[in-house]
């Protein structure tokens, strides 16, 4: 593939992930730290998604690890 295809694709992916994180953050953090309220399942799930995006950069693998294999 040409560099003229790869670079714009990577930049577009970065922009999409940044906007997703911004949307999740603005929708979740005020609800999570409202004070006195219990955190509902959807808020907890959004917090989990924010943690995954911030810690792994969105690179999540669903394959089982080989650490437990004999």
From TrEMBL:
UniProt KW Transmembrane keyword: yes
Keyword field: Membrane, Transmembrane, Transmembrane helix
* Annotated TM spans: 6-27, 39-60
Tell me where on the tree of life, at the top rank, the source sits.
Bacteria
Please state what the protein is called.
Uncharacterized protein
Which organism is this entry from? Answer: Thermomonas carbonis
